[in-house]
């Protein structure tokens, strides 16, 4: 199994930030803060950071800090940013988000179709 996240509860490596921990059974998606912390201890989050080591090595390091309860500090600015983003996304109804995606995709699809029609009609 390719471990891509660290359990925020026990430090055990797991498959994804929001999957159940194989060791303690904890799921890090109970509230917005836990979701944000779980994401911050994931490969997806760490790939966007300028690290002095590989992402897997960083995950191992974070895992070792959580196990003896050394890691109590999270970047509060990033944590608040993720929580705020979750709140915004939660307020958009699922059907509304689909309409937004479809509407935005029309700006790309219609010009492409027009160009193809123009190219093949000449």
Uncertain regions spanning at least 5 consecutive residues: none
Mean pLDDT: 80
Please give the order of strands in the largest beta sheet.
Answer: 1-2
Classify the beta-strand content into a percent band. Answer: under 5%
Q: What does this 3D model show about the protein?
A:
The protein is mainly alpha-helical and 122 residues long. Helices cover 57% and strands 3% of the residues. It has five helices and two strands. A two-stranded antiparallel ribbon has the order 1-2. A hairpin with a 6-residue loop joins strand 1 and strand 2. Helix 1 crosses helix 4. It starts with a strand and ends with a helix. The mean pLDDT is 80.
Entry keywords:
122 residues; mainly alpha; two-stranded antiparallel sheet; 5 helices; 57% helix
